[in-house]
Write a structure and sequence with these properties.
By secondary structure, the protein is an all-alpha fold. It has two domains: about 100 residues, Endonuclease Iii, domain 2; about 110 residues, Orthogonal Bundle (Endonuclease III, domain 1), CATH 1.10.340.30. It is about 55% helix and about 0% strand. The termini are far apart. About 35% of the residues are buried. The C terminus is likely disordered. The structure holds iron/sulfur cluster (SF4). Iron/sulfur cluster (SF4) binds next to helix 9 and helix 12.
Length: about 270
């Protein structure tokens, strides 16, 4: 059957995304030391709670709230049984505490029920991938990005979390059409990445989005991707904003500020 122009365009777009994924793997991989997944950062329930706390707030705030929560309660059973207004007070440093306290207890209730109170989510590493994702996204307040974080970070499953940095950098490079929704961005990027590429791609784009391809103005003068970047074509012509090169590069020995750096090495209580 003859292929229409729309399927040809889709195929061309897919090839373009794949070429850009190759450039990311090579150049940003080199810049950010080819990150590889080395097992879970924390247990899956902690990761779920952390991601709820990190919604719409800075990483330092969500980590402070998470630490306060684990200092106050010795087990997930205690968090689940706590008075909601008390939990709200404990996690107040994370912002949106009234919403997040209810959401955490709703999610914990679902996990408790699904695991018969064992809090063991290892079935998410064993179920068919889409079933595991559907179970996670059926939880209150858990969307595609959080589901992908749990599946990728805790179980090494091939899912790509698309956060604001990944979305911005991929969009500027030309991997995503203008105004692509977060949900669609997950599909478009996962479609062209090999399973083993998802973790490094996620980490590389987040790091690049924080230190170079920043919002609202990227520091293109520090970027190894200018020759393949759609945004840079516009910025070089003065049609899109670009920041000057910083006089001083970020201090590599500065204290950790971001979610993954803060929780790296953190051990959940017994
Ligand atoms: S060239 Fe500029 S806009 Fe493009 S990825 Fe690099 S920093 Fe971002």
């Amino acid at each position: 059957m003859a292929r229409g122009p729309s399927s040809q365009k889709r195929a061309a777009d897919r090839r373009k995304r794949r070429r850009l994924a190759d450039a990311v793997a090579e150049r940003l991989g080199e810049r950010y030391d080819h990150p590889t997944w080395a097992g879970p950062r924390v247990d899956a329930v902690s990761e779920l709670v952390l991601t709820i706390l990190s919604q719409n707030t800075a990483d330092t705030n969500s980590f402070r709230a998470f630490t306060a929560l684990r200092d106050r309660y010795a087990s997930w059973d205690q968090v689940l049984a706590a008075a909601t207004d008390e939990l709200e007070e404990v996690i107040r440093p994370g912002g949106l505490a009234p919403t997040k306290s209810k959401r955490i207890q709703h999610v914990l209730a679902e996990v408790h029920s699904a695991t018969d109170g064992t809090w063991d989510l290892s079935f998410l590493g064993e179920w068919p991938l889409l079933e595991a994702r559907e179970w996670l996204t059926s939880l209150p307040g858990i969307g595609r990005k959080t589901a992908a974080i749990i599946l990728l970070f805790n179980f090494g499953r091939p899912q790509l979390p698309v956060d604001t940095h990944v979305h911005r950098v991929a969009s500027r490079l030309g991997m995503l059409p203008p105004r692509t929704s977060l949900e669609r961005a997950h599909d478009l990027l996962e479609e062209v990445l090999e399973p083993a590429e998802m973790y490094p791609f996620h980490v590389e784009l987040i790091r690049h989005g924080r230190d170079t391809c920043r919002a609202p103005r990227p520091i293109c003068g520090l970027c190894p991707m200018t020759d393949v970047c759609a945004y840079y074509v516009q910025a070089a012509r003065g049609r899109a904003p670009m920041a000057p090169i910083l006089k001083a590069l970020p201090d590599p020995d500065a204290p950790p500020r971001f979610h993954d750096e803060l929780i790296h090495g953190w051990m959940p209580p017994e």
